[in-house]
Amino acid sequence: METKNCISKRISFEIANSVNNILVYLISFVFSMFIFSCILQAQGSRQDSINAFVRWRYIDATSTGTLCRTDNTGFYQLINWDINNRRAALYNNNDSIPLWEFPALVNSIAMSRNGNLVAISSPDKIYVLDKITGDVVNEFILNVIPGAISGGPIEMVSDGSFIIATASAGDSDSCWVFGFQSGSTSEIWKHKIYHSAYGMKISGNDSIVIVNSYNQVAVYETFTGIERFSTTINGCQNSMGISGNGDIIATIDLHGWLKVYHWDGSNYTLLW
Questions:
Q1: Does residue 59 belong to any structural domain of this protein?
Q2: I need a surface site. Which of 18, 150, 205, 219 has the fewest CB within 10 A?
Q3: What is the pLDDT, as a whole number, of residue 202?
């Protein structure tokens, strides 16, 4: 009789334990589903918030957008499409229909922040276009500079009146950096830097431009080409940094170094 009671108690205990385990599992499952639902709702709300600020989208399934520039108003966007159907295209904020397209093998683009001009760097020319119509207003033929081929990074001053450009010097060891009036077919100044140019930025007040190749950084006065600074770096394929008035510059390299320099009136001195 005691054996039967023990067996009965043991069975009751095991049943109760199984029921408890099932309840714990169900509670855990329900709680997990609740957390998962909250995450999905949060992601959906976040996406809805993002979508609320997206004016339009455009996908080119056969091309890749490699460069984008915008003007000070934020109303116009200049895009370089590469790989297939190579072209530069100008859009505004209304929809994804381009205002104009310019078929070309584009190496770099620039847009005047306050003016009505854009510039396109190609293998043999620098095209200057009317921003609104897309009409070509000037063509700067690269070979007017000895050995210059294949245009590289390019910048324009705010009103579009002056352009700073780069081009291979015809060998693997050097690159031309030059400045010219946007309506001219000859340069005002030019310099050589080592190897191909990878980046260029102009200060907010248009007075200073910083250019870099893989292993050199050079700083010039925009309109005269007077060299203010030159230094070597341990490899970089991105643009350097420059402040609004050009008094502060920053360099980076592939070894992880970040260096900041300050213009003291006659030289750029290392801050840290």
A1: no
A2: 18
A3: 95
